[in-house]
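Could someone model beta-D-glucopyranose with this protein?
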Amino acid sequence: MFKKKFLAAMLGTAMVASMLTGCGAASDTGSSDTDTEAATTATTEAAADDTADDATADTADDSSDDSADTADAGGKKVGIAMPTKSLERWNRDGSYLEEQFSSKGYEVSLTYSDNKIDQQVKDIESLIADDVDLLVIAAIDGESLTQVLADAKEEGIPVISYDRLIMNTDAVSYYVSFDNYTVGKLQGEFVRDQLDLDNAEGPFNIEFTAGDPADNNAGFFFNGAYDALKQYIDDGKLVVPSGQTEFDQVATKSWDTATAMTRFQNILGSNYSDGTQLDVALCSNDSTALGVTQAIESDYAGTNSVIITGQDGDEANLANIVDGKQTMTVYKAVANEAVATLDLGIALLKGETPDASLIDASGWSFECAYDTDSYDNGTGKIPSYLLVPTVVTKDNIQTELVDTGYYTMDDDGYPHPTN
Ligand code: BGC
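Reply:
Sure, complex below.
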């Protein structure tokens, strides 16, 4: 495993601004032609508008660089398949990826498939029929793309598995993600530290909520968190009153907020209505944390503040963190994930076989590991570029999210994504 960290002095608004430099050519053509899922909220639409505005400004500023930057694109097309607009982060991923590839002169088609597996297969079929030269895919169901990706392979189209590993296909060339096990580990260690489990007497009560079993990441998140807390559960210092400690028992189909809420209301009704205190709700991500927080607000009889974990830095969850309703989120800078995907994509489009040296050669201003060991998709180990997640709490929202330029703190006192 190789690691590279560039000078912290590079961080800050200037870094983010330069990272997104030249994001101008992102036309709506790709998304309006192939975008099969309507934007679900006004916020999303507003964010998309902001993106377009920022992009225009950047294009004007950097037009002199663009001709050099875009020389390699040579009319090549990039197909980007995202899972859904209904989970906030994928809107940001799609925008960033579209901006990045367009800024280098590639024609981009961006699809969202409404969390419907068959729709995503069809969307990818269309991208292949449209003669894309590269596919970047965040799968809805990691197990369902074997056939369509066999077609991509036959056409010689390289495939980057984006954020979620696509299973059971030898068509995947590379994987770009965050260190998913570490995401869960950070959540578990956060709970350990908050409760001072090494010194406190306990026992404390905890319940787990994990993600979609169809998403290969979900098991990594759950295992990372569970492994960090297992010794305390084994010792009896942490107790799980529902008895639900297996991934399959705590998983949430489609990472759905309402599903997580209903399950948690049932847990509270069955195990906590007698006044039993809940100390921790370990949630794998923000969409599930939102449902669990709603369940606690509506159905929990206790008055203590429950430690609630999350992941992503979704707007509603950051507002809950500011308001003291959620305790932490694990933030993953998807803007950087898009930058890593761009440089990897360019190398693949040039016919190269990238390895660890891509990290140095690209001069990324964020930390990234090249890992050829951790992710096996059933046909073999997939070389992976893994970025590093960060714990965000009320105390460091300003330094981690606002000072870095990812979010702006609005007059309402809540952070909103910059892009
Ligand atoms: C992503 C998480 C996200 C979840 C639901 C996972 O694959 O890694 O960041 O919270 O999907 O969208």
